[in-house]
User: Which sequence fits this backbone?
């Protein structure tokens, strides 16, 4: 019984040490994923700023179109047949 406990203890200790030895590879993978997340976050920020700029351009174009339509309406009311 005592030998069985020693063997099981050795196996568990060996498995624990093997599990702890792989943290460098895990850290490298986590660092790579963190870099990808940072890149995606910067891409999202860039897209948001571009979208905001386009929204402002669209609002300006709508205002210009509304003014042009109003001028055309005013011209149309002046000319009567």
Assistant:
């Amino acid at each position: 019984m005592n030998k069985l406990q020693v063997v099981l203890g050795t196996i568990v200790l060996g498995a624990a040490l093997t599990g702890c030895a792989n943290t460098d590879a895990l850290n490298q993978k986590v660092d790579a994923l963190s870099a990808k997340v940072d890149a995606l976050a910067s891409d999202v920020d860039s897209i948001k700023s571009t979208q905001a700029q386009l929204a402002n351009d669209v609002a300006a174009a709508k205002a210009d179109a509304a003014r042009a339509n109003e001028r055309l309406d005013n011209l149309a009311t002046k000319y009567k047949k």
Observations:
- The chain has a mean pLDDT of 85.
- The first helix runs from residue 2 to 21.
